[in-house]
């Protein structure tokens, strides 16, 4: 399968402003800190990987970005916009694919994408063009008339990614994007994510070191809600050894 790459251009973020900025961000549930004073920046146009075991705080951080949760402390911004005070504006800039990508099983793939485009506020006259764009980019044409529950896991994952891209967001947030895929589908998803870099900023989480190593430009290691380190993948000859030295 051939996936058409995106043309490379800068996202809609002011020059010099991080696509995502977290300053001393915490999320607590009573005495339990799901995220503990996280400080990091994600640069516009890069693929940034969050690496850590289950329960490390990756999904909590992603849900804070997506507006599903509110931080207990600290400041979190997207393109300079505060996720609490300017929540709606932030959500317009983000495309989000959770780990268990929710699709409406009674809808066909094409119907689902049109529905999501309307939810995103696209004018009716632009919906067809937007759908054609994501269908070509994600090679979905052969399943457009199939019910979402009747297609393979790989196609369901790509359909979820298509809805996240339907409004051309500045930032794409992917929670465990290769979870449950077979080896060929993992390779295809990895190639797709890399093709989106530049035109979009991509934040992806994973507990699989090799997937982050092959996909991300930079990687942050989280454990028990704490940031242990951030490194450029190109500057880290042995990512596994670095990970083990931190954890």
Question: How would you concisely characterize the structure shown here?
Answer:
It is built from eight helices and ten strands. The protein has 247 residues and is of the alpha/beta class.
Please give the share of residues in helix.
Answer: 25-40%
Strand content: 25-35%
Structural class category: alpha/beta
Radius of gyration (Å): 18 Å
The run of helices and strands is EEEHEEHEHHHEHEHEEH
Distance between the termini: 38 Å
Placed side by side, the strands forming the largest sheet appear as 6-7-8-3-9-10
Number of helical stretches of at least 4 residues: 8
Q: What does the overall shape look like?
A: globular
Low-confidence stretches: 1-13
The largest sheet is: 6 strands, mixed
Multimeric organization: single chain
**DSSP strand count:** 10
Please state the average pLDDT score.
90
